[in-house]
Amino acid sequence: MNEREKNLLWLRLMEAEGVGRISIKKLFEHFRSVGKIFSAKESEFAKVEGIRSGICKALKNRAHREWAEAELEKAEKIGAKIIPLDSPDYPKNLFEIPDPPPVIYLQGTLQKEDERAVAVVGSRNYNEYAEVMARRIGSGLAKFGITVVSGMARGIDSLSQTAALDARGRTIAVLGSGVDVIYPPELKDLYERIIAQGAVLSEFPIGTGPSAENFPQRNRIISGLSMGVVVVQANNPRSGALITARLALDQGRNLYAVPGNAGSVWAKETNRLIKQGAMLVEDAEDIARDVFPSLGIKPEELGPLFKKGEKPADLTFEAERLYSLIPEPEEGSVEMDQLIRKSATSASQAQSLLTEFELFGLIEKLPGGKWRKKPSKQ
To answer: In whole angstroms, what is the distance from residue 343 CA to residue 159 CA?
Structure first.
């Protein structure tokens, strides 16, 4: 059986009535082959716990065959790859959860090192502190070689993923729509950057729109792909970020939370998570020191991510160019608009780089939104 024929069977299995994700994983673990699932007799299915009778009839549904053919053609037309549960490319972390998607659609590439992944999630509405922390953690994880997983949503998700890309790291976006449907649409540039430097994936068929019920379902994939989940900020107890946090605990993943000011509405939920046992984290180094031992890396082998006041040696060409345009303290200051114009850098990338420089202790923000290099002695 060639790959295309096998993918068609997986798509048909995914559409079979009365066979959910948990059942499909049980069937695969019992038969070890999608071909054997389709050739099995009803009596053989009875040996698999939780599988209802009548499954043979469901698997022979002609409409499912036609749908699978059309779906595969759609994927091929847009260049999306289909990765079924039995593929060597299927993410190891995701396979371990109780209800992994039988099929994932992929744009971009998945790599072996993506097993070393951490999800960064949070509110769509956020304050300046959360923006700095999202960028700081996204950038820092990338510098430690940890893939950033998130949902490419407005707010914390996209901030952390942009920061990871700017730091030349990898990131995976899990969509609540088809892999070809960019949502929100204003993040088209980020979507394209992620495909070029990571992966965009979804369990939903090609062309599926971003309906509300899809997002809680996709959140289990965000946590499932990851070794741990960090909640940067969440100001709604029913937010998607907190759903992902609960799923992470259910899946046996590590849970991290960024603390905030006591009494602040912005910090209420993350502080509550910390009270309930989530690990308090202030930067990517805290996270790396927690997850690396499970990978055989000793915490004492980790150096600091950066030294305050010392410009990193591995800055990108764009970062070096932007940094060179920031005046020394005695030379005055510069507005962000001027930096964007002179450096030919996008607003989002400039903001991310400025935040990174500020965290390095290299620059400081002055009243009126102006920037200058930080005096060497303060």
So the answer is: 21
